[in-house]
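Sample 3 of the quickstart, ligand fe (ii) ion:
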Amino acid sequence: MIDTYQSLIANWSYPTSIRFGPGRISELANACRGAGIHAPLLVTDPGLAGLAIVKDALNALEENGLSTVLFSHLQANPVAANVEEGVAIYKRGHHDGVIAFGGGSALDTAKAIAFMSGQSRPIWDFEDREDWWTRADPAGVAPIIAVPTTAGTGSEVGRAAVITDETDHTKKVIFHPKMLPVEVIADPALTTGLPAPITAATGMDALSHALEAYCSPFWHPMGQGIALEAMRLVKEWLHEATSNGENVDARAYMMAASSMGAVAFQKGLGAMHAMSHPCSSLKGTHHGLTNAVVMPYVLHHNLKAIDEKLAAAARYLSLGDNAASFIDWVLRLREELQIPGTLHDLGITPDLISQMAPMALEDPCTGGNPVSMTTGAYETLYDKAINGTLG
Ligand SMILES: [Fe+2]
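Result:
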C-alpha cells in the first residue's frame, strides 16, 4: 500500500479551488463569503433534503448570517422543468449565488440554475455544440460553491451540466466555462452514510471517467496521467469504501478519484457513456451502474486500438502485464461489488436496441471512443451487453 501521506487535508486549485478533507464542510459559510455570496440558494436532491448533513449545513449558514433557501424539487435524471423551477425561485428570492449540494443530479441541476439565472434564451440554445456557449451572457452566470456528497460524478470540477430533454428523451450537455464552481468543498465525511450499492455504482462512474479518458485518442498528457492515478485509487479503495462505508480514508481516496476522473475526461469519454445515456433517458437506469455494466463489452470492442494502453495500465495498477489482466480485473471488481453483468438485468430489452443505437451514435461522447463507431456497431454492442456475450 503506497497511499500513506502525512495528512489527508489539503488545498487544491486544479482546475478550481478545492478545500479537501474530513470536516471541511464547516467552512461552507466562509467559502460563500469568499465568492461574494450572501443569500445562497442551496440546491440538493429530495433524498438528501431531509437528512442531517443538509439540515446541519443550513443551520450553520443561518448562524453565520447567510439567509439560505433550500430547493430540492429535482429528478434523478434532471429535466429542464427542474431547472426552470429553480431559476424562478432563485429570482423570486433575490439570491446571489448557488450552493450545489449532493450527487450528480443535484450538482448538475444547481449548476444549470446558476447558469440560467441570468440568460434570456432557452436552455437548449446552450447545448455543447460548436461554439453555442458563446451565445450566453457571462455576466448572467451566478457563482457556485459545490459540495459533492457522492464520489463518482466529479461534476464539482466540471464546466457542464447534463439535463434530459423530455421532448426527445435525450440527455443534453449544457456547457459554459463559467459553470465551473468558484470553489469546492470536498468533505469525504459527508459520504460515509452512502449505502453500499450507491457507493459501488458511483465509484464505477468515477472509474469509467478515468478509463474512457485514458483510452480516448486525444492529446492531453495531463488528463492521461490523472486518469491513470485515478484508476489506481479506485483499484485500491473502492472495494473498501463499499464494504466499510465508515472508513473515512477510503472515502477520501474515492472522493479524490472522482474529482480526478472528471478532470481527466476533458480528454474525452467514449462508447461506455454514449451507450449508457440512452438507457438512463429511456428507462431511468442509474448512470454509474449502467456504465459499470457496459464497461467490459466496450473494452472488448475497442481492444485492437487500446491493447497497449490497457497493458500499461495493468502494469501500473499491478494487475499483470497485458490488456486481458485489466479486463479480468474489471469483471472481478464488478462481481465483488455485486453489480449486474448484463443490461437485461437493468430492464433493458432487445426491442429498445433500434431506438438506442442511433441515440448512442449521436451522443457527444461517441467522438472520444478510440474506435470509430456506427449504428451497426452500437446495435451489436447493445445486443452483447443485453445477452452477456463478451468478446
Ligand atoms: Fe459519467
